[in-house]
Amino acid sequence: MPIATVNPATGETLETFTPHTAEEVEIALTRASEAFAVHRLTSFDERAALLRAAADALESELEDTARTMTVEMGKPLAQARGEVAKCVKAMRWYAERAESLLADEHPKPADVADSGGVDAYVRYRPLGPVLAVMPWNFPLWQVVRFAAPALMAGNTALLKHASNVPQTALLLEQVFTRAGYRPGCFQTLLIPSSGVDAVIRDPRVAAVTLTGSEGAGRSVAAVAGDEVKKTVLELGGSDPFLVLPSADVRRAAEVAVTARVQNNGQSCIAAKRFIVHREVYQEFADAFTARMSALRVGDPLLAETEVGPLATEQGRDELEELVQDALRLGAEARCGGRRPADLPQGWFYEPTVLAGVTPEMRVHHEECFGPVATLYQVDSLEEAVRLANDTPFGLSSNAWTQDPEEQRVLVRDLEAGAVFFNGMTASHPALPFGGVKRSGYGRELSAQGIREFCNVTTVWHGPAGGRD
């Protein structure tokens, strides 16, 4: 896949970029290592000042940055603006809190009294240059939620972004440079996927984080494992959206539409499988289908557009194959199920609701990365949980119920990295983010996220020594 900006609304190639040579990658690795030697010794106040400056620089260019993202990967412009604003917020959040999140931890004296020491504590120290392999669907947010905590911890960052969002990748590098970061603290590598293995194996790279497909995660984890390097993986998701009898059904149907089609349906934590109790199934299904049918599909740069094109032609074709397989095996398209006839150019697909989905259909087991929802009817909470867990993925989950006992059971039994009640799954700097099963491992954001790429160091002082 060439490194290029291709407008998914038209299919037009706007700009092609020359990949970095092996010599240029070597220079970048050297800079990352040299910058780490200095950056790791800076104070939290110094790091916070730099990150706040980066937040200010990004905020000052919000409109241009949002437009670049929309042109490169097709998200509606209003959502692109929101993504930029969210990145600014996360930068400031970590600038303010990183020092306390990484403060030394002291066990109770009684707990270590028999260790023979007079003092013991845990210190979080940076690891070194970290390679981030990032996807195109949230081309700014995915990077910032790694980079902000990594830089505040004292690491340096190397970004291998998706090949269809090179302008966004380079723009972010420029933001950190203008903020005053030392050369080498944050660098974009314009390399193909085939060049990732060599970067992981370079001894100057300390760890790797990847957000992307299960296949990409397997590949990166295999190489990193062979090199015994730390990895964090945030992979796919097929999140359930449970609606039980005590739910506010009208509100659930309204939120369900946003939860399914945010970012044109191309979100790992988008609700994808809608599992509804028989008592409220018809009410929810009718309201949900009506709202999905009413969505305005079109040019993502227009203010009235609610759903833009899929980011790639391949992605649109794969989504179409999943829907056609389901329809061939007996599913019902309550709405959508085809390309929009009035948008012959670009990679558009109509918002779609599939009912009557069975385990024989591919869409039941595979991640549906686009504005397509699958609708299920169940007779009990137990059946809802079984169906929710009937997936290789376990990223997040949504549940609509006012019943405290049902909520307790769902927190206990849902196989996912998060359970959101009566609202839509979302990422926030204060909340750890990540999954289980084939959705990956490790966590981003919050205290857990900033500590992922730290050397968790035990410090022990014997009777003859004082504290450092």
Describe the overall structure.
The protein has 468 residues and is an alpha/beta fold. The chain has two domains: 4-235 and 439-461, Aldehyde Dehydrogenase, Chain A, domain 1, CATH 3.40.605.10; 239-421, Aldehyde Dehydrogenase, Chain A, domain 2. The protein contains 15 helices and 19 strands. The strands form five sheets. Strands 11-12-13-10-9-15-16 form a seven-stranded mixed sheet, with helices on both faces. A six-stranded mixed sheet has the order 6-5-4-7-8-18, sandwiched between helices. It is globular and about 75 Å long. The termini are far apart. The mean pLDDT is 97.
Topology (elements, then pairings):
Elements: E1 4-7, E2 12-16, H1 22-39, H2 44-60, H3 62-73, H4 77-101, E3 119-126, E4 129-133, H5 141-152, E5 156-160, H6 166-178, E6 186-188, H7 196-201, E7 207-211, H8 214-226, E8 230-234, E9 239-243, H9 249-261, E10 271-277, H10 278-293, H11 313-328, E11 332-335, E12 352-355, H12 362-365, E13 372-378, H13 381-388, E14 393-394, E15 398-400, H14 404-413, E16 420-421, E17 436-437, E18 440-441, H15 446-451, E19 454-461
Parallel strand pairs: 4-5, 4-7, 5-6, 7-8, 9-10, 9-15, 10-13, 12-13, 15-16
Antiparallel strand pairs: 1-2, 3-19, 8-18, 11-12, 14-17
Helix pairs in contact: 2-4, 2-6, 3-4, 3-6, 4-5, 9-10
